[in-house]
Design goal:
The chain is α/β, with parallel strands linked by helices. It has three domains: about 160 residues, FAD/NAD(P)-binding domain, CATH 3.50.50.60; about 130 residues, D-Amino Acid Oxidase, Chain A, domain 2; about 110 residues, Helix Hairpins (Orthogonal Bundle). It has 13 helices and 17 strands. The strands form three sheets. Strands 3, 4, 5, 6, 12, 13, 14, 15 and 16 form a nine-stranded mixed beta sheet that branches. Strands 7-2-1-11-17 form a five-stranded parallel beta sheet. α10 packs across α12. The chain is globular.
Amino acid sequence: MNGNYILGGGISGLIYAYYNRDFTVISPDIGGKLNHKFFENIFYLHATDETEEFLKDVDIKSVKKTQLIKYSKGNEILHDISKQDKIDFIRKKLNDYSYDPKDLNLSTSDYYISVFEIDYRELMEKLRDKLSYIEDSVIKITDSEIITETTRYRYNKIVSTISSKIFWKIYESSKSVELKSESITFVLADRLPDYLSKMKFDLCYFIDRDTKITRISKRRRDQSDSYLYEFSGDVPIDECVKYLPEKTNVLEHYVDRAGLIFTDKNNIPPQNVLFVGRFATWNHSDKQQDIIRSAKVDFEIQNIWNIQKRFTANFVDFNNLTDDSIRQKMTKEYFVALIPEIAEAINEINYKQHKANRPVNREHLVEELIDTFKYYMNILLMWDVTPQEFIRVYKEKSDRVSREFNKSSVK
């Protein structure tokens, strides 16, 4: 083995392994949460260019669908969602009515989500076929080794798709990372509330406090015999039943102990480790297309990004960069700090015409150029620019500049 490993056999780990065949998956099982069939109700492949290309690569047939979203309040469907409604729902979802949300985005800014419907069993089977896989459980990670229940492996690179809460517990480090989460209780049932039974929808969010239900998911409109109810917190089955329609049969009850995460942008992996997937990055906004992007970007580029972010986190609390006025102030400060770094790089070359040339110390020049780049990277980090976005925009800008140049060069 070449020392490259993926921790976790869920969909995030399998997607990364598909595009990076030099990595070996370590997991006690393949499939993760999708082994619970009812999770298909809440697992969506958003209809993006990345996911479309991924499905073509894996040779999975898909149908583009529109997932209709409804918002319920007081047993009525809202036609407009106010700012206060959004705040109330986020507080209810997080089970914290004192929480002051900065990001008021819900699942979407509109009343629908475009998704690809696929056969998830077929997808899992095709991804399994391409795997290099070790069936084992990781119990400890050092800065050089992965220790499992049966043996140990020296590693060069790790892609962790497991929960960061678990990762930091088994990682040998003095670093103390506290990540906040809340349980989600899922109930698969055979009935809808009467006022929803005749209505077309795929997702319905419940804003008011009068019901503990936060969401009902109907994965496909032709699946009228089962519906997935969600409750924030660890809610016993007998408590859930109180909020279900009369004569409802509960088909399954499941509690995901850390199903809801509070985004923490200071959750930065150690060197030679990448976090991939929502529960690894601890970022609630990460979606499958973000995993695909990560899988297609060179490991070392992303590692360099994290090295800089780890160092900058000594001075900057990335969780507090929520206001553009703060970002602008810090951007100005970093640009001012960048000026003397550029001057130091210029001093390494013969830029003064009235002085005799001296040999250029290339090693010193490269070091000074790296210093300037590190300050520049900090500015990118201030504005949440990821390696994936950097590469995408760089290519788009380069293509545009080339087209404009070629157009102006035509005689």
